[in-house]
Predict the 3D structure of the following.
Amino acid sequence: MNPFKTILILAFAFLAVFGEATLSAPRSLLGAQIDLLPALMVYAALNSGLPTIALLAVFGGIWFDTLSANPLGISILPLAIIGWPIYLRRDLILRDLPFAQFVLGATASAAAPLLTMLLLLSGGKELLIGWGTLWQWIVMAAVGAVATPFIFSLMDAGNRALGYQERVEPGFRLDREIQRSRKKL
Amino acid sequence: MFKQKNYLALGAVVFVAIILLSLPTRATSRLKLAVGSWFLPLFGLAGAAQQLPADLADSVLSRRELLHQVDALRRENQQLKSQAVQTIAIARENSQLRAMFNWQKQSPWNLKLANVVMRDPANWWRTVQIDLGTRDGLRENLPVITDAGLVGRVSSVSTTHAQVVLVGDPNCRVSALVENPARDMGVLIAGGTLDTSLVELTYLASSANLKPGQSVITSGLGGIFPKGIPIGQIVDSRSVEYGLYTDARVKLNANLGSLEQVWVLFP
């Protein structure tokens, strides 16, 4: 496993959570704050190992809950629930296709707030929910869908620029070369 | 499909989540404060980035414009000074009357200016974070206002920052008074999810005579918000629960969508 990829994903998650808490433009323009963590989880599930998915779920969830009024730890499970099925089925997913990334991003971004709200309501919390929540949910899913292919491109570019590449073994091996020489008679 | 390492990783994540969720509130808030401090270096960067356009705009203002602004500020200052003199006289008269009737003396409130540094990233809460903390004397449940009106109350405090739960959040209920002849009283609760400027005033008397435009202020009941802080204006009202009581929509004076600086009230 390439640890640089994990560090890059966690760094992106940290900045994404900070951006969500400081940038109020999406809220004032669209009426809803967007969340990039589900889209990032789609990338992590398709391109990295289980430890990265677990770390992203735990740290991403904790960072989000720290800056929010959510109970600490409530966002961990929704992120994990999104990442695991994608990881288990990733060999069947055409991960390089932007359309597949778009659909997965939409599904993940729609599922994450629903699961979090479900957990909060199960815990007896009183939330700010109304008909406007439906609009916010649609906006979150749509923006998550559009953002996922961009996150894939950005993370791949980051990996190429900063991470080390795996060494590719050439087909040619010196020890297997057939020694040809003219027999001296 | 599910190998042992998959079970282990999923189990570890679930275990961490359950441990965090079952921690006592005090430990959770301490942990939140500790993790929140990781974002402190970014606070400074964000603040500097927000300040940069204003600094640039200031540096290109013409001398004529600056003189015009100084003149306007001087006039405003003179008006405020005369108002302050009147207020001091009224306060003196008030305290004399209170002494005559043997009423409890009112202590004046102190104000501290705070910058809004963050908003809640979740759509189902309405909170902001301000750059004052326990080192500035902040504690929970202090009222937060702007020059326009009530904003909310401090809900949790760290050393350098505090979380303010805004009016319109389900966790911020305010006892309010309508400034009409009957002085109708109700409770301010959460409003719409999209429009931050509208909140609901509920449990008003069924006979309440409400008209659009009537002012709503804090009633002073509940022990958190002092009496008389302006909240907003009545937009419309309707009878609910078969005429048992009346609900009204209130348009807030303070613009909660674009808060930059707020005042914290200290008793």
Summary: Chain A has a mean pLDDT of 89. Chain A is about 70% helix and 0% strand.
